[in-house]
Every structure is written in structure tokens, then in C-alpha cells.
Design goal:
6-stranded mixed beta sheet; binds zinc ion; 17% strand; 2 domains; Cytidine Deaminase, domain 2; single chain; two-stranded antiparallel ribbon; alpha+beta; 43% helix
């Protein structure tokens, strides 16, 4: 009596054991998948910190913003458009000195190195003699609380400038400096390539409706509101 009963019990517990083991295996697999996902996310955050310049890079990584910087653009933008942009920015001594001044104020290579920014525009010419060919350079004064690798409050300030001068000035660009070398440690993260616009740079361009200019130690980089580099010139 006892033996068959015991056998029966063993048999009946068989499937339930294996079901349980399957559950445990599935649960382990799920945990492994979770760990892999965490590793992948950590890796991507690390990549964002490494390859995008500004600290705000992490902001666009998590929501999967498609405005990812691209270093390569079609050849056509590098010809006629770029010749025109280059002549406007570097051939015009007023714009050139505005960008050079921003770089100087950034104090590259010192303990006080920090980003500087502003807006470049042109007085709207309605045919009045006093309106003829006047370049406007509005410089942003960064608050003392601004981290050296960002321009805290810049976008709001720029929107205000554009709105309040809309009848008299046509702004064509916003500009800012990237005064840290790739690989520099700033506020606990590693700086990316200074000649690549960050996701945040692209979103500032999109918000303002203006092309952006990066002034780095070696280059002037012009990018559009998607973060695509339109032109890049040696300074
Ligand atoms: Zn930037």
C-alpha cells in the first residue's frame, strides 16, 4: 500500500518540480536580460558623455531624440553655401572679431575656462542711410551659477533678444564656445569632441530657429537645427 502511494506521490510531484524549475530558469533569464539592459544603458550613457560635448547630452539620450549629431553632410552644402557662410563669418572682420572675442573671454586653458555665447545679426535695411550694413553682436552674460560647460539661461535670454528686436534686427546665428579639449574632465565627466554639436546645441537651434556656431580652439563649426554640421572651417 505504502509503496505505490509513494511512487504515485513521486510521479505527481515530477511535473510540478520541472514546472517550478522552468519558472526559476525563466526568472533567471529575465534577470539576466534586465542586467544586460542596464549594462547597455550604462554603456550608452557613457558613450553620450564621451562623444557629445556638452553636459546636457544625457538629456537627449534617454528620450531617444533623433537629433543626433552627424559629422558627415552632403558635399553640396560644403561648396556654395559654405563659401558664403565663411565669407560672412570669417571674411567680415566684425563677425570674425565677435567670434574671436567670445573665444578670448572663454579663457581656454585656465582654471576659469567656461563657455561664452551670443547672437549675430544684421540691422534690417529698409533703405535708410543709418540702417546700411550694421552687424549686431549681442553677447550673453553667463550667471555665476552656470557650470563652465554650459550656458545656463541662454535660450530664454536669446528668445527675449530676438522678440524684442524683431522689427529692427534679423538674427542669423547663435554662437557659443567649446573651450575644453576632448578628454578633459569637467565636473566629473569626460568632455567629447569640441567640434561636434551636442543634442542640446541642436535643440537650442531648433528653439531659436537659428543656425548655430561653435567656436573651438581650432575651428568654426556651423550646424543646423537637427545638429547636422553644415560647414566647418579652420579658425
Ligand atoms: Zn555646445
Amino acid at each position: 500500500m505504502n509503496r505505490p502511494a509513494a511512487k504515485e506521490k513521486t510521479r505527481s510531484s515530477g511535473p510540478s518540480m520541472s514546472y517550478l524549475q522552468t519558472r526559476i530558469r525563466a526568472s533567471r533569464l529575465l534577470n539576466a536580460a534586465r542586467i544586460l539592459a542596464i549594462i547597455e544603458l550604462t554603456h550608452r550613457l557613457h558613450q553620450a558623455y564621451r562623444f557629445a560635448y556638452d553636459k546636457q547630452a544625457a538629456d537627449w539620450l534617454l528620450p531617444q531624440n533623433p537629433a543626433q549629431p552627424q559629422t558627415g553632410t552632403g558635399g553640396h552644402t560644403q561648396t556654395s553655401d559654405c563659401a558664403h557662410i565663411r565669407a560672412n563669418l570669417l571674411g567680415d572682420p566684425r563677425n570674425r572679431s565677435a567670434l574671436n572675442d567670445a573665444w578670448t573671454r572663454s579663457q581656454f586653458g585656465t582654471n576659469s575656462a567656461h563657455e561664452e555665447g551670443g547672437l549675430l545679426g544684421q540691422v534690417i535695411d529698409e533703405g535708410q542711410p543709418y540702417q546700411k550694413d550694421i552687424v549686431i553682436n549681442q553677447t550673453y552674460t553667463t550667471p555665476s551659477t552656470s557650470p563652465p560647460i554650459s550656458l545656463q539661461g541662454f535660450t530664454n535670454w536669446a528668445q527675449g533678444q530676438i522678440a524684442s528686436n524683431s522689427n529692427t534686427v534679423a538674427f542669423g546665428y547663435w554662437y557659443h564656445t567649446h573651450p575644453f579639449n576632448q578628454g578633459a574632465h569637467v565636473l566629473g565627466f569626460v568632455v567629447g569632441n569640441p567640434n561636434v554639436p551636442s543634442g542640446n546645441d541642436a535643440s537650442v537651434s531648433a528653439t531659436l530657429g537659428l543656425r548655430g556656431i561653435i567656436v573651438s580652439r581650432t575651428r568654426i563649426v556651423v550646424f543646423d537645427s537637427s545638429g547636422n554640421i553644415q560647414c566647418s572651417f579652420r579658425r
